[in-house]
Amino acid sequence: MANQDTLIEVRNLKKFFTIGENTLKAVNDISFEIKRGETLGVVGESGCGKSTAGRTLLRLYDATDGDVLFEGKSIMKLNNQEMKAMRRNMQMIFQDPYASLNPRMTVGDIIGEALDIHGLATGQKRKERIQELLSLVSLNPEHMNRFPHEFSGGQRQRIGIARALAVEPKFIVCDEPISALDVSVQAQVVNLLEQLQEKMGLTYMFIAHDLSMVKYISDRVAVMYLGKMVELADSEALYEKPLHPYTQALLSAIPIPDPEVERNRERIVLQGDVPSPMNPPSGCHFRTRCPKAMPECAAKEPVWKEIEKGHFAACHLYN
Question: Using CB atoms within 10 A as the burial measure, which of 18, 97, 117, 236 is most buried?
């Protein structure tokens, strides 16, 4: 189990939402750990629970069940005062740089707000720290009195990153931080995140749709489907030898820049639509679209287990 290298340990985490008479099981019993200084990529289709998992992990949503340990300490049991102190260690970079910045505040105040809340700097020191943070994300420190609408999407995302870094966190959830940006800007933001990680020893949970980008930035990758984690492995191992049929289908959709290989390669096209998370299929949630489904897939849920060293999956093919 967890050792000194583990920064975050997630145990049987669940987050359910009640909608009218129904229960939406957005995150349904997932367990994993994140090591210090690593990037754990989390991928899956829209609505699979990736972002909800990230937010529940930081207690932006209260978990329905399960536990999250930060450096061995459960954050689920902390009171408001203790949680406020813990927030310095754990931050988030949001998906939409347009929606996550207050348009009425200057960039200096957006970044400075975190310094104020935690009492980290006042007066001249505060101003210097804000300018230092803007330089850190390659923005002009002189622009601290400008408003968000005066910046491009990529620059706004850099402001969001500076805000997350203001309290010197150890762990950052990057919730699809590049999906709202132009492709040309995406690589710049990802490279910036990597440089900051190296410089400041940061640990990331990087949530994304783009599998090739996730491969590039992540040490390990987790695949989610309908609130469940279906596979988790080192980035290299997952892309070379995916075990779960859903992961195999996802990876078969990534174009390969070699026309010869691309021509002879078989695409796995999944049948049907993603079922409603309000009413997921019995047994294995993926069975209704799985090309390898067997009778037992409907009867019982597959167990999450280590199939090869460090390579976990939940699939009846490996029982």
Answer: 97
Tokens of 242: 């995916």
Give all strands (DSSP E) within the chain, no chain letters.
6-19, 22-35, 39-43, 65-70, 73-74, 90-93, 171-175, 203-207, 220-225, 228-234, 304-308, 311-314
SS3 93: strand
Per-residue pLDDT at 1: 45
Residue 197 to residue 285: CA distance in whole angstroms:
35
Chain centroid to CA 237 = 19
Walk me through the domains of the chain, giving residue ranges and CATH numbers: 6-89+169-318 (3.40.50.300)
Q: How far is residue 262's CA from residue 254's CA, in Å, rounded to a whole number?
A: 10
Contacts of 266 (CB under 8 A, 6+ apart): 252
- pLDDT-derived band at 262, boundaries 50, 70, 90: low
Q: Taking the CB of residue 188, how many other CB atoms lie within 10 A of it?
A: 16
Give 204-255 as a DSSP string: EEEE-S-HHHHHHH-SEEEEEETTEEEEEEEHHHHHHS--SHHHHHHHHTS-
Contact 231, 304 (CB under 8 A): no
Query: Crossing angle of helices 183-200/153-165, nearest 10°?
Result: 20
User: Distance between terminal CA atoms of the chain?
Assistant: 22
In 10 A of CB 132, how many CB atoms?
Answer: 13
pLDDT tens digits, residue range 86-100? 999 999 999 887 888
- Residue 167 one-letter amino acid: V
Structure tokens at 61: 């949503």
